[in-house]
Amino acid sequence: MVFIWFVDVTYLFFLFQNISPYFWSSLGIALCVGLSVVGAAWGIFITGSSLMGAAQRVPRITSKNLISIIFCEAVAIYGVIVAIILQTKVEAVKPRDDGSYSLAAANAGYAILGAGSVTGWANLACGLSVGIVGSSAALSDAANATLFVKILVVEIFASALGLFGVIIGIIMAGNANFVGA
């Protein structure tokens, strides 16, 4: 037996109309910081474990390959910077008499949610890609010292993913205005 659950569209409209835009903006800011930090931590874990394993055999690679850890840490900093920018956009607005919020406040809340989500997910992907490339850089540098600079270029390209997320997040939140014009 198959159960089909239909949701009345007017109920969803009523639900989203009456949820505070501050909830959506807070969720966007939390996703921005949270996913960025998870991406940085995951990248550091991937790079650090390979770096420490390869450094047991070839100790000379330790100081050179710390740049991969720094690239991963920059991902968390990207998230914090965008979260600070998003937080400055939030303003105090009272709900209407029926409990709903103005269209400008709702749009601003959704814009901040979107900007934080895009930045957070981009930084998560950036942290993973930088971690994987950093792991490859450590292992290849241990095998052949001439490969380090070549793989470092690939790591810089992987790190650009986070910057793209930051730029898109700033553009998306650029017109967020809770008060409206």
From TrEMBL:
Principal cellular location given in the protein's record: membrane
Any Pfam family the entry gives: ATP-synt_C
Membrane topology: Multi-pass membrane protein
Record has Ion transport as a keyword: yes
Annotated transmembrane regions: 22-45, 66-88, 108-135, 147-173
GO cellular component assignments: proton-transporting V-type ATPase, V0 domain
Domain V-ATPase proteolipid subunit C-like, chain residue ranges per copy: 27-86, 113-172
Origin superkingdom: Eukaryota
UniProt KW keywords: Hydrogen ion transport, Ion transport, Membrane, Transmembrane, Transmembrane helix, Transport
Subcellular location: Membrane
UniProt-listed Gene3D superfamilies: lithium bound rotor ring of v- atpase
Molecular-function GO terms, alphabetical: proton-transporting ATPase activity, rotational mechanism
Assembly description: V-ATPase is a heteromultimeric enzyme composed of a peripheral catalytic V1 complex attached to an integral membrane V0 proton pore complex.
Family according to the record: Belongs to the V-ATPase proteolipid subunit family.
The protein's role, per its UniProt record: Proton-conducting pore forming subunit of the membrane integral V0 complex of vacuolar ATPase. V-ATPase is responsible for acidifying a variety of intracellular compartments in eukaryotic cells.
Protein name: V-ATPase proteolipid subunit C-like domain-containing protein
Species assigned in the record: Auxenochlorella protothecoides
